[in-house]
Amino acid sequence: MAKDTTDRRKARVRRTLRARAYGKPRLSVFRSSKQIYAQIIDDANGVTLAAASSIEKAQREGLKTGADVEAAKAIGKLIAERAVAAGVTEVVFDRGSYMYHGRVKALADGAREGGLQF
To answer: Which interval of the chain is the signal sequence (predicted)?
Structure first.
């Protein structure tokens, strides 16, 4: 039963994003119990423009763990840096089925500090 509600919530968020995206790429977030991942996706062309995660070697060495707010903020700054290098400055934020709280919020704040607008 929990899977159904998660799928419905994710679909509701994506439907809202599509209505408000106006052709902008989306910043998609996935978090597990040990890591956090972010991607900038161009849905019109079906390509990933930039990606960052706490599992990358450079991030693993610099972070205590991949599952805390510090790691999420660092990944947010890194994804923003890579997106700006790829020519993307405006995105829509896709939190998936996660609440905008804790690590997801920290990633968004880090991305904003890095130069992304959403």
So the answer is: none
